[in-house]
Structure formats: C-alpha cells, structure tokens
Amino acid sequence: GKTRLLIVGGVAAGMSAASRARRQNPDAQIVVLERGDWISYAACGLPYALGGDVPDLQESGWEALVARTPAQMRARGISVRLNHEVTGVDARAGTLTVRDREAGRTSTEAYDHLLLATGVSPIRPEWAVTDLAGVHVLKSIPDAQAIEASLHGARRVCIVGGGYIGLELAEAMRARGLSTVLLERGDDVAGRVLDDPYRALMRAELERRGVDVRRCQSVDGLHGNAGRVTGVQTDAGRVQADVVLVAVGVRPNVELARAAGVRLGRTGAVAVNARQETNVPGVSAAGDNTQSLHRVTRRQVHIPLALSANRMGRVAGVNMAGGDARFPGIVGTGIFKVFDLGAARTGLTQGEAEAAGLNTVSVDVVSTDHAGYYRDARPVQVRLTAERGTGRLLGAQLVGAPQSVKRVDVVAALLHRRANVTDLFEADLAYAPPFSTTWDVLLVAADRLM
Length: 450
Ligand code: FAD
Hints:
Blueprint: E1 4-8, H1 12-24, E2 29-33, H2 46-51, H3 56-60, H4 70-75, E3 78-81, E4 84-90, E5 95-100, E6 105-110, E7 113-116, E8 120-122, E9 135-136, H5 141-151, E10 156-160, H6 164-175, E11 179-183, H7 196-208, E12 212-214, E13 219-225, E14 228-234, E15 237-240, E16 243-246, E17 250-252, H8 255-259, E18 283-285, E19 292-293, E20 300-301, H9 306-320, E21 334-338, E22 341-347, H10 350-355, E23 360-368, E24 379-387, E25 393-400, H11 408-416, H12 421-425, H13 441-449
Parallel strand pairs: 1-2, 1-7, 2-3, 7-18, 9-16, 10-11, 10-16, 11-12
Antiparallel strand pairs: 4-5, 5-6, 8-17, 13-14, 14-15, 19-20, 21-22, 22-25, 23-24, 24-25
Bound molecules: flavin-adenine dinucleotide (FAD).
Domain Pyridine nucleotide-disulphide oxidoreductase dimerisation: 336-438
Protein name: FAD-dependent oxidoreductase
Cofactor: FAD
C-alpha cells in the first residue's frame, strides 16, 4: 500500500513537514493529528493581536493569524484531524493511540513514519494552577480568546515574567489603556537574552510608557474573591489585579517521545540527528519540542523559536518522504520590541560566552540608525563580542529603533560561516543617509575589535 506518514502537532513544524512531505512524495498518505481546534497559526502574532496591531482581526476574527486552513491543506491532499489527541505510541508495532475528543472515541492508527511536532507548553507554577477566573497563560488562539474575554471590564493587569512574551504583553496591555504591573523574579527584564546594560535600556522604555516594573519579586500566591482573581501575593507585598498573565517560560512536550523510547537530550528536549531523526527507527521530531545544534558553541540547545521550528519541520518532511535534507543548526538569533525600542541578539551575549568558558572581548558602540542630519535619526547601541586572540565573532546585541536592530542579521549570517571581526569589518554594507551611517554601527564596532 501507500506509505503512511503520521504527524503529531499541526502548527509550525507539523504543517511545514506535511507540506514538504507532500511535495517530496505525491503518493504518500499524510495525516496530521492535532489535539486543538487550530492549525498553522502564528502564535508570534498573539500579543500584537491583543494589543490592536492586527487590523485584519476586526474583519476576519482570529483566522487573521492562520496561514493555512484545514480546507487548504486537504486540497493539497493532506488529511488534518482537529481535536485528535495522541495519547500513546507503540514504536515497535508502529501504531499510535488516538483519542477523538469530540466523539469521545479512541482508535489505533498505523504509521510507516512518525513525526513528533508537539511543541512546548507554558509553565504554570503551582500558585498559577487555580480555579480562579482571570488567570491566563498565552500560547494558543483559545488562550488569546480567553484573555480577550477576561479583559472585558478589567482595569488592572499583572504580568508575571519579564521574558519577551511578558514584555510584548506589557506593551499590548498599555495599548489597551490598562494599568500594568510587570513582576520579574530576576534582577532585570529580558534576563535570558541580553546583557545587563541592554536589559536596563528595555526596562527604561517600559517604565517611560507607564509599565510598573517590579524586579526581584517572586510570586507566592493569588488572591481571589467570588471565583475571580483580585491580586497577586509576592514576597514583597500585594499587587491588585483583575487579570493575571503568567509568562514564566515553557517546557517541551516530550511525553509521547518518552513513551516511544525516544532519547531526550541534556536540555530536556528531544535529541535528533541533522535529519531530524530520533534514536528510534521510523520516529522523527521537529520544532519547539526538539533541541538543536548551536553553531557557535557546538553544543545542543533548546531555543524554541518559529523559524527553526518551520525549518526543522521542512527537513523532517523531506526525509520522511524519502528525500535527504539536513538541519544546519542555529546561532541563537532573536528579536523583540517594547513600544518604540527594539532589541536583537545573535550568537552569545558576553555573559553566555563567559559561562561557556570562552575568552572573550566585547565592545559597546553608540551611533545613529541613519545619518544624523537626516530626519528622525535615533540612537542605536551595539555590543559586539569576539574571541580574544583569534577575533572569531561570537555574538552581537543591539538596542534601538525597532527596524534598526534588524541589522543583527548581518552578524547572524556571518556567525553561520564562523567568520571573524575582519570579515565583518570588510563587508560591503548598504549605505544612503535615510538607511544608515556611512560606516554602519556594526562596521564601527568591528573596527574597534580588530
Ligand atoms: P507548537 O506551536 O507548540 O505546536 C505544537 C502543536 O502540537 C500544538 O498545537 C499542540 O496542541 C499539538 N500537540 C501536542 N501534543 C499533542 C498530542 N499528544 N496530540 C495531538 N496534538 C498535540 N517565535 C519567534 O521566532 N518569534 C516571535 O516573535 C515569537 N513570538 C511568540 C509569541 C508567543 C505569545 C508565543 C506563544 C510564541 C512565540 N514564538 C515566537 C514561538 C513560536 O510560536 C514557536 O516557535 C512555534 O509556534 C513552534 O511551532 P511548533 O510547531 O514546534 O510547536
């Protein structure tokens, strides 16, 4: 019979894999099993949808964030089953146990090749496991719908967690005119992604725009009344809130992988080879549930982001369907903004490089995003980090006007090639007054490190 490919999870990695597998093998039978109601949606757009930055939401509803509908996938010969949760795997028999949540039925499905694209789940600390209404995480469209409903009539919001999702939510809540408190357990926001001085710049922007940022505060519990949350109890006191948004991190969904006898890596996410294959024959993994090779440190890391999820899915899809593709690894690139300030990083921060035992040197440069005499010039700050002695590029961090920090991509591309500061300095970058300075801030930084 036909080769049967089963894919668990229908968002970025799962749908990329399905599309690619279809192209690679027009005859294969491809089935996507998704426990939720939605496939192929842009989770990255959720904070912006809540903040009013997705105009199509008015007209099309949450479908505005959907890249491809189940009907479009079916038209390509990919079978999509919503509300189907995979509850077990028998890798030896090559079968899955699938529960149809609507019909309340359980069935067994056979596969020739299985892809686990199960993503991550938001962490809910013990205090956040509650029956009180008004306490939310943000991961999926139904989460966003629930937040939207909760915000109706609310005045005060407390966001717990100062990672990029918490920060994006803070902006969204202020855009809705809500009084917003952001609690961060660590000594500053964006602790996992930026070095200290750059974190402080992001916090200053939040505070300038009315976000009450409280650092070094950890949450002990919630207060409630008549079934609704009324506040958050921290080790430093009480924060009144009508709505509490919990954004304290994610953990990979690896239960099925475990059940299948698939090896997890040191990060706790699924370990795979460059073809996205696990240690169990016939079982692949891709996306946020999977770790990947960091090309700068050569270590396995778990950095759950959308481009790598899509790319891993694409690689897995080609290979499952009989082709040959490799995932090249990542270099730790990330970007986000709060209000009028963007932040981007690639490679390693100074802190990360030191933690990795590298002998590093960093330089900080402040310049303008374009010619200072041309209107609306704004400061852009760069920290460039290299290996002492060899000059090998290790990383860059930028903070400035949102579009200006996208130049991080130049360094990201060079990190893929294991380039050094001279390579960066010698790059023929684009210049005209509305776009950059003659010597772009990245070139100035490279020059200072040579
Ligand atoms: P997921 O999107 O997690 O999808 C996995 C799917 O598998 C889920 O739908 C789940 O229901 C399903 N599933 C799991 N277990 C089972 C089972 N047993 N049976 C059936 N189905 C199952 N990334 C960026 O790069 N840039 C950003 O700006 C950005 N912003 C973000 C903002 C927010 C609020 C969030 C939540 C994420 C953001 N991300 C961003 C991350 C990005 O959304 C993810 O990297 C991407 O969605 C990962 O796709 P995935 O397919 O690997 O996993």
